[in-house]
Design brief:
With 419 residues, the chain is mostly helical. The protein is built from 14 helices and no strands. 85% of the residues lie in helices and 0% in strands.
C-alpha cells in the first residue's frame, strides 16, 4: 500500500512543481492580467471536459471490471462527440467566447475527456504506473514547451503548448489501452445495460465534479466581473499554491479508489479510509504551515511585483483547504462503492455556499472576499461528507496514533533500503 502511495505522491509532487514553474513563467512574463487570462482558459477547458465525461468518466474505474471494455470505450467516444457538438453550438449562439477561443476550448476539452476515459479504464485494472505516466505528461510537456518558447522566442503561446501536451498524452493513453485491452471477447451485456450503468454512475460522479469545480472556481468569474482579470490572476496564484497540499490526499486516494472498487468488504474499506484520512490531514497540515511561514517577499520575488498580496490571501484560504483534505480522502470511499450521489450532494451544498458568499463578499472585498467564500465552501462540503461517512459506521479522528506513525516510519525505512 505505502509503496504505491509514495509512488503516486512522487508523481504528484513532480506535477505540482511543473505547474508551479508554469505559474512563475506566466506571472513574471505576463503579470497578473496574463495569469488571469490563462486561469480562465484552463478553467473553461476543465468545465467542458467534465460535461464531456458525463457518461462514464471517472466512473469507468468502477465499471472497468464489470463490463466489456469495447462497449465502454465506444459509448464514451460517442458521448464525447455528441457533447462537443452541442457545447460548440450552444456557446457559439450565446457568444460566450470569441470564435477562435471557443474552438480551442471545445477541441482541447474533447482530447482531455478521451484521454481521461482511457486512463480511468487503466486505473480500474490497477495499472497505476501507466495511469501516472499519462497524467504527468500534460504538465511536463506544457512546461517544457512554454520554457522553450520563452528561451527561444521570448514569448508564450499557451494554447499551442496545451495542444502538444494534450495530444501526446492522448497518444500515450491509446498505446497503454491497446496493450492492456482484455483478451476476452465477452460483450454479452446489451448496449442498453451499458448506457444505463454508465449514465447512472457517470452522471452523479461528473455532477459531483461539475459542482465541485464550480464551487472552487465560480468566484473567478464573479471576481473578473467586478474587479477584472488582474484580481483573478493574483487570487488564482494564491489558490493554486494553497490547494497544492491536496496532492497528498490525491496521492492517497488514487490507490484507495482503485482498491475499494475491487473490494467487497465494506468494513475493511471504512477502516482503511479512516486511517488514510488521518495521515492525509497530518501531512497536509505540515504542508500548509510551510507555505504560510514563507515570507511575503518570497512570493513577490518569485511571481513578480503584482503578487504581493498572495500570502495574506493564503492565510484566509488555508483553514478551508486543510479541512477539505478529509473530504477528498473520504469522498473516494463513496466513489469506490459507486455511491457518487453523496459526493454530488456535498459538492452542491458547497456550490450554494460559494455563490452566496461570493456575491456577498467579492463586490466589496475583491480577492479577499473570494478567498473567504472559498474557505466557507470547502468547510460546508467537508461537513456533509463527514456526516455521511459517520452514518456508515465510521469513527471521526483527525491525526494518526503513535503506533500508526511508528508503523509508517518503519515502512519508509524498509522502502528506502530496498531502493
Amino acid at each position: 500500500m505505502w509503496r504505491s502511495i509514495f509512488g503516486n505522491f512522487g508523481v504528484r509532487v513532480l506535477s505540482a512543481l511543473l505547474n508551479f514553474g508554469l505559474v512563475i513563467l506566466f506571472s513574471q512574463l505576463t503579470g497578473a492580467v496574463g495569469k488571469g487570462e490563462q486561469s480562465l482558459l484552463l478553467t473553461s477547458v476543465a468545465i467542458i471536459t467534465i460535461f464531456d465525461s458525463l457518461i462514464g468518466g471517472a466512473a469507468l474505474v468502477y465499471l472497468s471490471s464489470r463490463f466489456s471494455w469495447l462497449r465502454l470505450v465506444g459509448a464514451s467516444y460517442l458521448w464525447i462527440c455528441l457533447v462537443s457538438i452541442i457545447a460548440a453550438i450552444g456557446l457559439y449562439l450565446f457568444k460566450i467566447f470569441p470564435n477562435g477561443y471557443l474552438i480551442n476550448v471545445i477541441v482541447l476539452s474533447a482530447i482531455s475527456a478521451l484521454t481521461s476515459a482511457h486512463a480511468s479504464l487503466l486505473l480500474g485494472q490497477q495499472k497505476i504506473g501507466a495511469y501516472n505516466l499519462i497524467q504527468i505528461t500534460v504538465p511536463l510537456l506544457t512546461f517544457l514547451t512554454c520554457l522553450f518558447q520563452w528561451t527561444t522566442q521570448n514569448e508564450l503561446d499557451y494554447v499551442l503548448a496545451l495542444y502538444i501536451a494534450f495530444g501526446f498524452s492522448f497518444a500515450l493513453s491509446v498505446f497503454y489501452l491497446w496493450r492492456s485491452f482484455p483478451s476476452t471477447k465477452d460483450v454479452q451485456q446489451s448496449w442498453r445495460t451499458v448506457w444505463r450503468s454508465m449514465f447512472a454512475l457517470g452522471f452523479f460522479n461528473q455532477l459531483a465534479h461539475v459542482l465541485q469545480l464550480l464551487s472552487f472556481r465560480a468566484s473567478y468569474y464573479i471576481l473578473e466581473q467586478y474587479h477584472g482579470t488582474y484580481e483573478v490572476g493574483v487570487y488564482s496564484n494564491a489558490s493554486s499554491i494553497t490547494e497544492s497540499i491536496w496532492l497528498i490526499a490525491t496521492s492517497i486516494s488514487l490507490w484507495q479508489y482503485a482498491t475499494i472498487a475491487n473490494t467487497q468488504d465494506q468494513q475493511y474499506t471504512i477502516q482503511i479510509t479512516e486511517k488514510l484520512a488521518r495521515f492525509g490531514l497530518l501531512a497536509s497540515l505540515v504542508g500548509v504551515v510551510f507555505f504560510l511561514l514563507l515570507p511575503a517577499d518570497f512570493y513577490r520575488y518569485v511571481f513578480g511585483p503584482d503578487f504581493g498580496e498572495i500570502q495574506q490571501l493564503m492565510w484566509v484560504l488555508a483553514p478551508g483547504v486543510w479541512v477539505f483534505t478529509y473530504a477528498l480522502v473520504v469522498g473516494h470511499y463513496f466513489s469506490g462503492h459507486g455511491r457518487y450521489g453523496v459526493n454530488a450532494f456535498a459538492s452542491g451544498v458547497g456550490l450554494v455556499f460559494s455563490i452566496l458568499a461570493s456575491f456577498a463578499l467579492i463586490p466589496s472585498y475583491g480577492a479577499f472576499g473570494g478567498a473567504i467564500a472559498a474557505s466557507i465552501s470547502y468547510t460546508a462540503t467537508s461537513a456533509v461528507i463527514v456526516y455521511c461517512f459517520l452514518k456508515d459506521g465510521a469513527v471521526f479522528s483527525i491525526f494518526p496514533s503513535k503506533a500508526e506513525l511508528e508503523q509508517l516510519f518503519t515502512q519508509i525505512r524498509v522502502l528506502w533500503r530496498k531502493s
